[in-house]
Design a protein that fits this description.
The complex is a heterodimer of chains A (178) and B (185). Chain A is of the alpha+beta class. Chain A contains eight helices and four strands; from the N terminus they run ααααααβαβββα. In chain A, helix 1 crosses helix 6. Chain A is globular and about 50 Å long. The two termini of chain A are 32 Å apart. By secondary structure, chain B is mostly helical. In chain B, 88% of the residues lie in helices and 0% in strands. The longest helix of chain B is centred in the middle third of the chain and has 136 residues. Chain B is rod-shaped. The termini of chain B are far apart. The relative contact order of chain B is 0.02. Classes of the chains: A alpha+beta (178), B mainly alpha (185). The interface between A and B is medium-sized, with 36 and 32 residues.
Chain lengths: 178, 185
């Protein structure tokens, strides 16, 4: 695992590029969705981190995943990170980028994990609830993560709002095991 | 022989006159004077010498006797001393032996007690270790069982959750966070 400096450096550079292109918001959201998809798809993750696979193939995979609708800068950044052999750090870099970008907007990033995709209505309600709980304007970036099993886990800054079935089961495991 | 003696007797007999029986007075005077001189001489010179000699001898013997007596007394004293010393030594040696015996007994007792204590400590330690190991294994087993059970439960729960259950869970989470909790309500 690369150091925090490396992650921060990449995040800062990509942020600067996206900002210069005037597409920070879109790029940041698209990158986050991309990163979440990569995180949840083992085959995809292995393909992108496989050193033996030619870069051209990886870029083709990225283009296919992001599609024509995505911002070109998003594609370029994703290609650059993967092309530099930093696919393993993609999640950390994108999270850092999203955190900084959200802070630029005087907001705070909430990484919300659910087992099933959220509807727009629930996403808004979760954002409102987290904003009320933290006292800050929260921006929700949701990740579909089956390991949550059910319910929601939200990371807001250093705070965790954990209402997931998986953590309930972990609690049960702790209680049974001790 | 007998005839000779008888002839002589017969020859002497006629000469025996009564006056011849007594000494002549001149003879007596001379005898007395001689006796006086002898007596004087004896008492003046010889007797004192003899007396002195005797006295000297007597004193010498007495001194020797006294010395012998003294030596004997001394010897007795020395003997008594020796006996006393011997008795003291015997007593001392007895005391030392008794002391050594007591010390040895004490030492034996101490060593035994220590050995017993060590043995008990070792046994206690072993028991503790066994108990700790048993607890550890039990704990491990328990954790593993819990993990397996919960994993199975998670799979079952995950499969049994339908869309409406997911929505309910998410809604409940939103309510919980909105009411100031951390989502674990």
């Amino acid at each position: 695992m690369a150091g925090a400096d490396l992650v921060h450096g990449y995040a800062q550079a990509m942020l600067t590029v996206a900002e210069a292109e005037g597409a920070l918001d879109a790029v940041e959201k698209e990158l986050f969705a991309f990163s979440a998809a990569v995180e949840q798809n083992t085959a995809l993750r292995e393909a992108l981190t496989d050193a033996a696979l030619p870069v051209a193939n990886k870029e083709a995979v990225i283009d296919e995943l992001l599609g024509e609708r995505s911002h070109p800068v998003t594609r370029n950044i994703a290609r650059f990170i993967v092309g530099s052999g930093r696919a393993k750090e993609l999640g950390a870099i994108v999270r850092e980028l999203a955190t900084v970008a959200t802070e630029r907007r005087r907001h705070v990033l909430a990484e919300v994990r659910t087992a099933v995709p959220l509807t727009q209505e629930r996403r808004t309600r979760i954002a409102a609830a987290l904003s009320a709980a933290t006292g800050r304007e929260v921006e929700v970036r949701d990740v579909v993560d089956p390991s949550v099993i059910g319910g929601v886990i939200a990371h807001v800054g250093d705070e965790v709002f954990d209402g997931s079935v998986s953590s309930r089961l972990d609690d049960a495991k702790q209680q049974l095991g001790s | 022989m007998v005839a000779t003696i008888l002839a002589l007797l017969a020859a002497v007999e006629p000469l025996n006159d009564k006056k011849d029986l007594y000494p002549h007075w001149q003879e007596l005077v001379v005898g007395a004077i001689a006796f006086a001189i002898l007596f004087f001489f004896m008492s003046k010179w010889v007797l004192p010498r003899i007396n002195a000699l005797l006295e000297e001898r007597r004193q010498k013997i007495q001194g020797e006797l006294e010395r012998a007596e003294q030596t004997r007394t001394e010897a007795d004293g020395i003997l008594a001393d020796y006996r006393q010393q011997l008795a003291g030594a015997r007593e001392e040696s007895g005391r030392i032996i008794e002391e050594a015996r007591t010390t040895a007994e004490q030492l034996r007792h101490d060593v035994q007690a220590k050995a017993e204590e060590e043995a008990q400590a070792t046994v206690a330690r072993a028991q503790d270790e066994i108990r700790a190991e048993r607890d550890r294994v039990f704990q491990e087993l328990r954790a593993q069982v819990a993990e397996i059970a919960v994993d199975l439960a998670g799979r079952v729960v995950g499969e049994s959750l339908d869309a409406s259950s997911h929505e309910r869970l998410i809604d409940r989470y939103i309510d919980e966070v909105s009411s100031g909790g951390n989502g674990q309500g």
